[in-house]
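Worked problem 6 (solution included).
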Amino acid sequence: MLEKEQMLEQIQRSMQSAEEKRHASVSELSAKHRKQLESMEAQLAEVSAERTKASETIQSLQMVLAEKDSEITGIEAASTGEAARLKATLEEIKGELTHLKDQHEKERQSWEAECESLREKLEALESARFRSEIESAKFRNQLESELSTQNQLLQNKDSNLISAKEEVHFI
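Solution. The predicted structure is:
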């Protein structure tokens, strides 16, 4: 029985030793678990803070994006209006240019017609002047011829008169 008691004591000591080891292991594991838990809680707090910060950043960026979208919409509306105004102005200028081209073409045609009319009048006047010069030359020749004939007649009369005077003087 002693042996059994000794064995029992030895088993109890082994059990106590095993219990102490188990208790030490549990304490060690508990401490490790607590440290891991604290580390994870710290990481979770960091992640939560970063998530909150990221959420705030996202909200801020969404607000900035909304402002920029609004600005872009305003700019697009303004540029669309400006483009429409410029297009209308361009069309107006094109219309004015077409009108001016038509006016210039009409003026050019009018000037050409006027020039042609003046050219025809000039040709007619030159032709009339040429005919007039010919008629003048003929008339001058006729007058010169008549003058020459009259001079001849006058000379003949003078000569007759002188002869008659000489006869009268002689008589």
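Discussion: The chain is about 100% helix and 0% strand.
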